[in-house]
Amino acid sequence: MIKQITESTEYLKQKGFDKPEIGIILGTGLGQLLNHVAIEVQTSYNHIPNFPTATVEFHKGKLIYGTLEGKKVVIMQGRFHVYEGYSLQDVTFPVRIMEKLGVLTLLVSNAAGAINLNFKKGDLMLIDDHINLQGNSPLAFKGVAELGTRFTDMSAPYDADLNYKFEAIAKTNGINLHKGVYASVVGPQLETRAEYRMLKIIGADAVGMSTVPEIIVANHLGLKAAAVSVLTDECDPDHLEPINIDDIIAMAAKAEPHMITLFKELIKTI
């Protein structure tokens, strides 16, 4: 993996990805942040040596470099998921590349279902902690200790200072920002009524199919990390209705302006 990381990093440096400070992973329906970026370089994933290729139709598959609020950023427009057939090492490979390029802070967005019934679709949730239900770890491979601490501490995977700033920004801008626990499952099928009940019992406030692997690797590499979920549906097992993916994407887009405000204002402070 070290050889692959080196090849990918050198390719991107030659393309002009020059010492970004902040890495951003854009989730489902959250691509409009790019309208606020002064883009300098962009390249498709399938042009980057050793990079996976996004296979979900609404994930674009580009790595973008530019300036946002005076900071150099590298942005993943489209992410990878275990449900696409990738390993957790594949899913998190871009985070390792970001770190080698110079990123010190990782900001993540995603779409999630609300397990906590006090949260409503269209709301945002700041992730305070998570539960990994993907059945494996992105650190479970031979040679991981050459890239960072094998037994990575996860007592506080989401940076307290970044989360404090997110909450302050939300309050100042009148944004309803919940705080809670995100459970990450494999997918791509949605959960059954019994599974939603289980998730509530074990302490989840929201559920999705991403983010946790990237956060684990960010901690493994010593990056500061924070993540925000757009709650696109309400997962009430006693009144469960069939999910429409188009509706989920539309709800994510509706909440997007608030997400953009949070990210832009936070980046000003980093």
Automatic annotation (TrEMBL):
Functionally, this protein is described as follows:
The purine nucleoside phosphorylases catalyze the phosphorolytic breakdown of the N-glycosidic bond in the beta-(deoxy)ribonucleoside molecules, with the formation of the corresponding free purine bases and pentose-1-phosphate.
Keyword set, alphabetical order:
Glycosyltransferase, Transferase
Q: Which Gene3D superfamilies does the record match to this protein?
A: Nucleoside phosphorylase domain
Organism equals Winogradskyella pelagia
Query: According to its UniProt record, in which pathway does this protein act?
Result: Purine metabolism; purine nucleoside salvage
User: Recorded E.C. number(s)?
Assistant: 2.4.2.1
Give this protein's Gene Ontology molecular function annotations.
Answer: purine-nucleoside phosphorylase activity
Keyword Transmembrane in record: no
Task: Give residue ranges for domain Nucleoside phosphorylase.
Answer: 22-268
Transmembrane annotation, as ranges: none
Classification via Pfam families: PNP_UDP_1 (PF01048)
Domain of life assignment: Bacteria
Q: Which InterPro entries match?
A: Nucleoside_phosphorylase_d, Nucleoside_phosphorylase_sf, Pur_Nuc_Pase_Ino/Guo-sp, Purine_phosphorylase
Its recorded name reads Purine nucleoside phosphorylase
Which family does the similarity line name? Answer: Belongs to the PNP/MTAP phosphorylase family.
Q: Does the keyword Ion transport apply?
A: no
